[in-house]
Amino acid sequence: MGLINKMDQRLDLMGKMMRKTQFDLSTSKQLGLDQSYSKTIFKCLHCKSESQCRQWLSTSTEATQAPGFCPNADEFNSQ
Predict the structure, then answer these.
(1) Is it the case that residue 12 has pLDDT exceeding 80?
(2) Residue 37 sits in which domain range?
(3) What is the dihedral of CA 7, 9, 11, 12, to 10 degrees?
(4) Rounded distance, CA 36 to CA 54, Å?
């Protein structure tokens, strides 16, 4: 898989996780968390739980907290 494809797929997963956890980027900026947004992207790009993430996103129907395997769980669950 090429780097651009990997980035597209991971950012898609990250967007889905943000929607699922109702993570509001505009609120995070107000809280001063926007500095860590690039770190959030980096963590997602290098996550070792891609298949587990896909599975969780496809089966979890309600808005909820990010799961423990997500390297960005603390960020997404901070609001």
Answers:
(1) yes
(2) 3-76
(3) 160
(4) 23
